[in-house]
Amino acid sequence: MRGALWAEVLKARRSRLPWVTVLAFTVAGVFGTLVMFVLQDLSRARALGLLGTKASLTGGSADWPASFALLAQIVAVGGVGVFGLVVIWLFGREFSQHTIKDLLALPTARTTVVGAKFAVAALWCLALAGYLLLLGLLLGTTIGLRGWSAAVAARGLGEVLATAVMTILLVTPFAFAASLGRGYLAGVAALITAVFLAQVVALVGYGRYFPWSVPALFTGLAGPGHDPPGVVGYLLVLLVGATGVATTAAWWRGADQDR
């Protein structure tokens, strides 16, 4: 496992994708701070040419609780796309770059390789969520958000991390799709389908029973008219995560690699 982890970290370090994911979360964090800046003073925002209609994203308040809530919503929505691309790349690259047979020829169990890839994906995604939090704290302090307290910070930190963990669990099936499709295309197709269905199912009021809608409901992104996810929703998220890991490991262990 130690050697497999080292190899996966080395692949990620020499790729451009980590910088792309950091850039994506940087843009999202700056946008969130811009929303808070607009809400602080709408007349100032109009004078600067900024759109005050962005206020509807955070319920109309410019303070630390609203900022943390917006960061959690960024992880819930953007995280599915960014985290999903991380997982798809980690598993699909071996097929797209024709290194799968070389990898499987090494004296390392296939399930160990799968475990190393999922471990790197989880650490990568958690690091992105932590980076977003730090960026949000820095920018929020710069614009002088009000309402800071230790309790607010602890609650906001817990909400963002819990959303990140749920999102990481929900992207594990995309690893199976990328493996089964032997490349990126099937994984990306599964990602797009999940995101689309999450919006539709949440819109009709059954989001708490659809795992990919649960993080958004947890952060309150769907609005006050939607019920928060209950125990069933969280259990479904855990089930999806466990199923994604198990099916991917089983496929890698038993599939023939003939090219």
From TrEMBL:
Which UniProt keywords are present, listed alphabetically?
A: Membrane, Transmembrane, Transmembrane helix
Source domain of life is Bacteria
Instruction: Tell me where the transmembrane regions lie.
Output: 20-39, 68-91, 118-140, 160-181, 188-211, 231-252
Pfam families, A to Z: ABC2_membrane_4
Q: What is this protein called?
A: Bacitracin ABC transporter
